[in-house]
């Protein structure tokens, strides 16, 4: 069973609109309307837009495709057992010969069910093997079926051109050797094919002969791992909700453990008045156990309103919390988003107590000062000393935006300053005659620095040595975050060294080498 | 049988944790200060806090850093601190004391910059907790009673001229005071060499073939850089 242009269908675009799904700047799939306008697969974005100016472009979302196709698979599984997904948009299933009255009738029933889901373009092919059936489906019309009679697979496949071979290099080679159809390829001696083309060729040869080595592998229905509890009547306080969900959290962890899984990221959804009012994804550096899940729930509920406050669990959600929980907490669900096998975490399950101890300590501090206040650090690229470290909340896996291994021209060479001021104070640098020291557009210093002051509170002192400027013209393409600064290292006569930065015509003390 | 062994025996008999274990120390501080597990050590500069913390971190211990939003984290990495095993609480506001107490329970070393004055009673209570939990506290700032205190007396940067070069290295004079009333001074390279090998930047204990860059312990005609170690017995107990 084949749904053509599945990426476009999954994107939820109507069939009459010319639309295309892009992957890596090239058209991956397009709707029939776009195809009529001349858009083809593999075309570049600009060419496609030139052919069809009103083309709607969307980026590829493989997860959405797979997720939408899961709905189709579930619907088909209600009608017939043993559905084997091949890729999103294509699945194979065994046709019960007589249950619906025949093959054609079965195909009609299945197609009708899929069309009910809103997928209007579905085509069925029936043959002895998966390969032949797939190509039969490609030949079928919309919402129709193409039946290859039993034993007729070899003849049907033999008529296909050599282009259907997915291995482009092999297809090209065969064409140059004069093999234009799968039928002529099938007439070659199997031994010769194996000698010349190896296992890939031998497999293709079997397919071309109408023998299909792939059995229809049944899909294992994915287990439903979502656990939750509904409260009737709705709960008033978050403490009560956390208390009531203790069993649910344990059950969630237990269900996963039965599948040999542990959850590393979970989305907690809170319902109020019949709708989901709050959903948030939490990650754990190792994996969640039941108390950790409850901690996250407590923080999420506490963060919901200003009255929640830090560490006080007695806030009444209804009063003074905005409208979110005006009707109380109706239901809470734990939706595992990322799971991994227990085996990967075996060392932390058995022993390795120190890390567990650190986790516990960090969790306690998070409970005290809030989950965002506890941070872990990752090195990242940047020019100022403060930019070169990325702080993420403990337990979250936030991707580092700027890779450190790329060159960062304008970076101050090591050693780095030991004190980097979170809020730089305004400094002043003067030349020998008391004039202000500035940097020209070409990066030259207007006067030799002779005296400086690191903040308004500190006295002026003489410059013993200085180096710079390190000019930085950052993000000039973006008006909002553009920054044009010059950095100086200045050593005072008292031996202390500072990193000063000239931003426009104002000096700031960025860091101290102490 | 020496005194330490005897103390350890008594501690074991009394059921107290044996608090005489020392923590690994950065080569630049070797011989200057031997920090012990369960102790409180005060520093007056960020680089000294980093140098002191780098020893345990390099040995695989977890660190906590509380209330230090100004700490240079690139410098921390350069000092040899493993930032993967670092728990940062940059701003705990008025709850900083509770945060320190919670981290002391689970980490091996905690660096804190106290935003407010700490009373001697609170400090004593925390010290008992540190000993029980086998944790080391490094205080960047004031503290009522420290087992040891490192201070940066003076520093001389090299590598930078008038408009050329960049800061490369520093000769720093570090003073260490311990509660036995001995203060030692030593001139070292800071930031120093984090590896064990005595490169040109490492503080060297021995004289011999030390080049012009090595810190020399022996006073002598070792050029403009070496000042030698001056260990002076300050009769603080008698004075106070």
Description:
The complex is a heterodimer of chains A (about 525) and B (about 240). Chain A has about 525 residues and is α+β, with helices and mostly antiparallel strands. Chain A has 15 helices and 19 strands. Among the domains of chain A are: about 55 residues, MutS, DNA mismatch repair protein, domain I, CATH 3.40.1170; about 140 residues, 2-Layer Sandwich (Dna Ligase, domain 1), CATH 3.30.1490.100; about 40 residues, no CATH class; about 100 residues, no CATH class. In chain A, helix 6 links the parallel strand 6 and strand 7. The longest helix of chain A is centred in the middle third of the chain and has 19 residues. About 5% of the residues of chain A have low confidence. Chain B has about 240 residues and is an alpha/beta fold. Chain B folds into two domains: about 130 residues, 3-Layer(aba) Sandwich (Rossmann fold), CATH 3.40.50.300; about 80 residues, no CATH class. In chain B, about 25% of the residues lie in helices and about 25% in strands. Chain B has six helices and nine strands, in the order H-E-H-E-H-E-H-E-H-E-E-E-E-E-H. Chain B has a nine-stranded mixed β-sheet, sandwiched between helices. The C terminus of chain B is likely disordered.
Short characterization:
Chain A has helices at 6-10, 32-36, 45-51, 62-79, 103-116, 130-139, 153-158, 168-176, 182-186, 190-208, 238-244, 246-258, 290-302, 346-349, 353-369; strands at residues 19-23, 26-30, 56-59, 83-87, 90-93, 124-126, 145-147, 227-235, 261-272, 275-283, 329-341, 375-379, 389-393, 419-430, 451-453, 461-474, 483-492, 497-503, 506-513. With 514 residues, chain A is an alpha+beta fold. Among the domains of chain A are: 6-60, MutS, DNA mismatch repair protein, domain I (3-Layer(aba) Sandwich), CATH 3.40.1170.60; 227-361, Dna Ligase, domain 1 (2-Layer Sandwich); 374-411, no CATH class; 419-513, no CATH class.
């Amino acid at each position: 069973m084949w749904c053509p242009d599945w990426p476009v269908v999954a994107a939820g675009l109507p069939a009459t609109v010319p639309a295309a799904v892009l992957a890596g700047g090239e058209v991956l799939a397009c709707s029939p309307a776009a195809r009529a306008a001349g858009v083809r697969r593999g075309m570049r974005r600009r060419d496609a837009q030139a052919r069809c100016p009103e083309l709607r472009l969307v980026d590829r979302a493989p997860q959405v495709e797979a997720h939408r196709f899961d709905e189709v698979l579930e619907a088909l599984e209600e009608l017939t057992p043993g559905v084997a997904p091949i890729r999103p948009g294509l699945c194979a299933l065994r046709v019960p010969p007589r249950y619906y009255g025949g093959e054609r009738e079965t195909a009609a029933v299945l197609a009708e069910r899929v069309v009910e889901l809103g997928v209007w373009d579905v085509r069925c092919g029936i043959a002895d093997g998966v390969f032949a059936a797939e190509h039969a489906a490609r030949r079928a019309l919309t919402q129709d079926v193409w039946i290859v009679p039993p034993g007729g697979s070899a003849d049907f496949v033999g008529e296909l051109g050599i282009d259907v071979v997915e291995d482009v290099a092999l297809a090209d080679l065969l064409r140059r050797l004069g093999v234009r159809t799968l039928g002529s390829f099938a007439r070659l001696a199997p031994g010769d094919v194996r000698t010349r083309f190896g296992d890939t060729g031998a497999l293709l040869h079997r397919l071309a002969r109408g023998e299909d080595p792939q059995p229809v592998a049944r899909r294992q229905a994915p287990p439903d791992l979502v656990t939750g509890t509904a409260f009737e009547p709705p709960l008033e306080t978050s403490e009560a909700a956390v208390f009531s969900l203790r069993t649910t959290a344990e059950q969630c962890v237990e269900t996963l453990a039965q599948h040999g899984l542990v959850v590393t990221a979970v989305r907690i959804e809170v319902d109020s008045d019949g709708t989901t009012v709050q959903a948030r994804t939490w990650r754990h550096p190792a994996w969640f156990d039941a108390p950790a899940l409850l901690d996250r729930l407590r923080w999420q509920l506490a963060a919901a309103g200003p009255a929640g406050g830090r560490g006080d669990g007695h806030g009444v959600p209804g009063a003074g919390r905005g409208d979110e929980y005006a009707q109380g907490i109706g239901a809470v669900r734990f939706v595992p988003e990322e799971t991994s096998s227990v085996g990967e975490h075996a060392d932390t399950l058995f022993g390795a107590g120190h890390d567990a101890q650190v986790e516990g300590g960090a969790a306690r501090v998070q409970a005290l000062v809030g989950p965002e206040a506890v941070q872990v650090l990752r090195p990242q690229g940047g020019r100022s000393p403060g930019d070169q470290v990325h702080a993420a909340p403990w337990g979250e896996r936030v991707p580092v935006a700027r890779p450190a291994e790329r060159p960062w021209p304008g970076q101050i060479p090591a050693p780095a300053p030991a004190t980097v001021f979170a809020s730089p104070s305004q400094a002043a640098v003067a030349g020998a005659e008391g004039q202000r020291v500035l940097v020209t557009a070409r990066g030259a210093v207007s006067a030799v620095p002779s005296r400086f002051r690191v903040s308004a509170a500190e006295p002026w002192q003489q410059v013993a040595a200085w180096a710079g400027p390190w000019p930085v013209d950052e993000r000039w393409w973006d008006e909002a975050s553009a920054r044009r600064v010059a950095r100086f290292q200045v050593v005072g006569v008292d031996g202390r060294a500072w990193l000063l930065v000239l931003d426009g015509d104002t000096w700031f003390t960025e860091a101290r080498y102490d | 049988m020496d005194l330490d062994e005897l103390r350890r025996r008594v501690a074991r008999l009394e059921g107290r944790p044996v608090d005489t274990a020392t923590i690994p120390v950065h080569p630049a501080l070797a011989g200057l200060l031997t920090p012990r597990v369960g102790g409180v050590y005060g520093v007056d500069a960020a680089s000294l806090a980093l140098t002191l913390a780098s020893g345990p971190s390099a040995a695989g211990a977890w660190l906590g850093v509380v209330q230090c939003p100004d700490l240079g984290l690139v410098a921390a990495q350069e000092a040899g601190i493993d930032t993967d095993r670092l728990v940062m609480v940059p701003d705990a506001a008025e709850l900083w004391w509770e945060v320190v107490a919670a981290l002391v329970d689970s980490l091996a070393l905690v660096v804190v910059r106290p935003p407010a004055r700490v009373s001697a009673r609170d400090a004593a209570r925390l010290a008992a907790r540190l000993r029980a939990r086998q944790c080391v506290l490094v205080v960047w700032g004031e503290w009522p009673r420290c087992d040891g205190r490192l201070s940066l007396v003076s520093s001389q940067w090299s590598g930078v001229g008038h408009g050329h070069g960049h800061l490369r290295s520093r000769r720093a004079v570090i003073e260490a005071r311990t509660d036995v009333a001995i203060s030692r001074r030593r001139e070292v390279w800071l930031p120093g060499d984090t590896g064990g090998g005595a490169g040109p930047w490492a503080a060297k204990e021995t004289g011999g073939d030390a080049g012009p860059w090595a810190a020399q312990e022996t006073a002598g005609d070792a050029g403009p850089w070496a000042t030698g170690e001056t260990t002076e017995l300050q009769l603080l107990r008698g004075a106070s």
